[in-house]
Write a structure and sequence with these properties.
Elements: H1 21-30, E1 45-46, H2 58-65, H3 75-88, E2 92-96, H4 99-110, E3 116-119, H5 124-132, E4 136-139, H6 143-146, H7 160-170, E5 177-180, H8 193-204, E6 210-213, H9 217-227, H10 236-245, E7 249-253, E8 264-268, H11 271-284, H12 295-308, H13 311-330, E9 343-347, H14 348-351, H15 361-373, E10 375-376, E11 378-380, E12 387-388, E13 395-396, E14 402-406, H16 414-429, E15 437-441, H17 447-450, E16 452-455
Helix pairs in contact: 1-15, 2-12, 3-12, 4-5, 4-11, 7-8, 9-10, 9-13, 13-16, 15-16
The structure holds ligand F0G.
Ligand F0G binds next to helix 4 and helix 5.
Length: about 450
């Protein structure tokens, strides 16, 4: 069969409140043309993030009911620990309330002022936690990974030449190196096993520990299986195990590739770091056998980690993201190519060339997608990463002006996606009419979350 179906049936549904364009006009105006300020009830299809927005399975819901809520020594913790160890091989497993808590604890233990932490591309919270520890977060991307149009199988890879040069020059300032799979901040692109292995051997040759930001490890394992020679006949579990075998630890947000609505973990082999991390865990997250989560959350995560490595699920997952990306490209909506694992990134600067960069083509597009069809997406461009030059007062734009549509796991069906494609086709046919956007009230930090805008 050519048609890949959703490998699940729906046994519980959540109503979507339909809205008309007339209703959405005042809603977006009241939200100051910032989709983050729209109530979710007023959104038809929500692609703001794939984080914490997954549908849990019947087995995960059953696991919730049988969770062990003991303060110490919970059975649900030991099930969770066994599952994390089976996949990652790491000895010490600390549950946290989400990915960024793992990052904060890791960098509090391992990094200090003046240190440098390299990554393929740091996610914003990772960067923020490193900078909070006084260290610098460095992205080491090859040119091919930054080109939005180039077709290549592993555009998430780290630049090995840049890493080698950095190690040569600044090796003594690097307490650990990281790699993010898949590379969310660079188009959701995968990292090859070859690249993981090479990064690991460069770091290990200098006794520098290597950590994986594992949020979307299973999606990355699937890309390796499909695209890298020698992995076609391997199970997703064995590929994931091999990925982790090259590392000394990982940070994980269970809100992504564990189908959970909350949760995460920090896992590692280094006993002395793990002990210090455990102390910090008790301070702010909780006792080491629950770490900021309920026993039922740990049970749902353990079950989710089992389900994420299902071949049928992952074939459907990556195909359905690809389906959206390929159709958008066919109807003339340029996207960061090839489609990523968890999200499609529309190249708004290229799609709306009549809108100057200082009128935020990405923000203009997210507003228009909401008005057109009640679709919520997020600008990943000069609103999020641009800065105002203090001298000239002019915008220093981001490298790209993209719009991310992150796809929640097991939530939307193909007809929802067909609706998006139709909406984007309508938008493309009248794109010259879309106007730019300007700031009305600019928040000093993380300005995409709370700033107010208006059409130019
Ligand atoms: N690392 C990566 C690669 C991520 O994508 C995220 C979260 C985190 C770490 C932090 O995890 O949210 O559980 O604290 N990404 C979400 C997103 C928020 O929308 O991409 P968290």
């Amino acid at each position: 069969m050519k048609t890949i179906i959703e490998p699940f049936k729906i046994k519980m549904v959540e109503r979507i409140r339909m809205t008309s364009r007339e209703e959405r006009v005042p809603i977006i105006r009241e939200a100051h043309f910032n989709p983050f300020l729209i109530r979710s009830e007023d959104v038809l299809l929500d692609f703001l993030t794939d984080s914490g927005t997954s549908s849990m399975s019947d087995r995960q819901w059953s696991a919730l009911i049988s969770g062990d809520e003991a303060y110490a020594g919970s059975r649900s913790y030991f099930d969770f620990e066994r599952k994390v160890r089976e996949i990652t091989g790491f000895e010490h497993v600390l549950p946290t309330h989400q990915g960024r808590a793992s990052e904060r604890i890791l960098f509090s233990v391992a990094a200090k002022a003046g240190d440098i932490i390299p990554n393929n591309t740091h996610f914003d919270t990772t960067r923020a936690n490193i900078e909070h520890a006084g260290a610098s977060a460095l992205d080491l991307m090859p040119a091919e990974g930054l080109d939005p149009d180039l077709d290549a199988p592993f555009k998430g890879n780290m630049d090995l030449g840049k890493l080698e040069e950095l190690l040569e020059r600044e090796g003594h300032r690097i307490p650990l190196g990281m790699i993010t799979v898949t590379n969310n901040a660079s188009g959701g692109q995968p990292v090859s096993m070859e690249n993981i292995r090479a990064v690991s051997s460069l770091l290990r040759s200098r006794n520098i520990p290597f950590f994986i930001d594992a949020c979307r490890f299973a999606e990355n394992a699937y890309f390796i299986q499909q695209r890298e020679a020698g992995y076609q006949d391997r199970s997703l579990l064995s590929i994931a195990q091999e990925m982790f075998s090259y590392a000394d630890g990982c940070t994980m947000s269970a809100k992504k590739d564990a189908f959970a609505n909350i949760g995460g973990f920090l896992a590692m082999n280094n006993a002395s770091w793990a002990e210090k991390a455990g102390t910090l865990l008790v301070l702010t997250e909780g006792f080491p056998t629950y770490g900021g989560l309920a026993g039922r959350d740990l049970a749902a995560i353990a079950q989710g980690l089992e389900e994420i490595l299902d071949q049928d699920y992952m074939a459907y997952r990556i195909r359905s993201t690809g389906y959206l990306g390929e159709h958008l490209r066919t109807i003339g909506v340029p996207i960061f190519w090839p489609p990523g694992g968890h999200a499609i990134y529309i190249n708004a600067r290229k799609f709306l060339p009549h809108i100057p960069v200082d009128q935020y083509p990405g923000q203009a597009l997210v507003v228009e997608m909401y008005l057109e069809a009640g679709i919520r997406a997020v600008e990943v461009g000069s609103v999020m990463f641009g800065r105002t030059d203090p001298g000239t007062g002019k915008l220093i734009p981001a490298r790209n002006d993209l719009v991310r549509m992150a796809i929640p796991r097991r939530v939307y069906t193909q007809s929802h996606i067909d609706y998006v494609i139709e909406a984007m086709e309508n938008l493309a046919s009248r794109k010259e009419s879309i106007r730019g956007i300007r700031f009305v009230k600019e928040s000093p930090v993380l300005r995409h979350f709370t700033s107010w805008f208006e059409p130019v």
